[in-house]
Amino acid sequence: MLLGDVFPNFEADSTFGKMKLHDFLGDSWGVLFSHPRDFTPVCTTELGRAAQLSPEFIKRNVKLMALSVDSLEEHHGWSKDIMAYNNAEPGSQFPFPIIADDRRELVERLGMLDPEEKDRSGMPLTARCVFVIGPDKKLKLSILYPATTGRNFDEILRVIDSLQLTAHNRVATPVDWRPGNSVMVPPSIPETEAAALFPAGVYTKDLPSGKKYLRYTPQPNTQQQ
Ligand code: BEZ
């Protein structure tokens, strides 16, 4: 999958029932993320954190979906462990679907396997992939971690804030940007156009090269989704 590709409209079994990706997403953004196996330690911490942050994703109009090569029965059993790990109220439901790709069709089709990491039977493990899909069903961002390194779901929220802002405004977000921080005017916008486009002002940092490419402007306040 390359940035800008339309994400395949796959059908799958999930803990929320049968799903067809594009129908499930509707007008929302989506985050599809894979994990190596159910009932493993790092994956439990990751899905636990994603479950805790689920209201933050909902606030941003983003639907989460996890995926692994385990069965539906395993997903249902493991999600109870994850909720207990989170010290959630007994009986509370895991907040988003986990896709059962036990025939390994999706992990192969979507390039989610890590040939460097094998399970006990010698099969390649599923890597920790993250795909952010826009309301137009196109891939907006992908991240690929090996099985041995857990992800940071606060960072995934942060990049969604950037993706949603930059989908509606001709700006770019700098290193470690957080909502409310100044943003950058991209190099594609000529100086003559920048002043009109950014009425809040453009600040250009002087540099030894004399080139005027480090241009900041306050974050525009427009719709996020
Ligand atoms: C884990 O989730 O802890 C894990 C899974 C597969 C390989 C390494 C770690």
From TrEMBL:
The keyword Metal-binding does not apply. Its EC number is 1.11.1.27, 2.3.1.23, 3.1.1.4. Belongs to the peroxiredoxin family. Prx6 subfamily. InterPro entries: AhpC/TSA, Peroxiredoxin_AhpC-typ, Peroxiredoxin_C, PRX_1cys, Thioredoxin-like_sf, Thioredoxin_domain. The lineage of its organism: Eukaryota, Metazoa, Chordata, Craniata, Vertebrata. Residues 1-165 form the Thioredoxin domain. GO terms for molecular function: 1-acylglycerophosphocholine O-acyltransferase activity; peroxiredoxin activity; phospholipase A2 activity. Gene3D superfamilies: Antioxidant, Horf6, Chain A, domain2, Glutaredoxin. This is Peroxiredoxin-6.
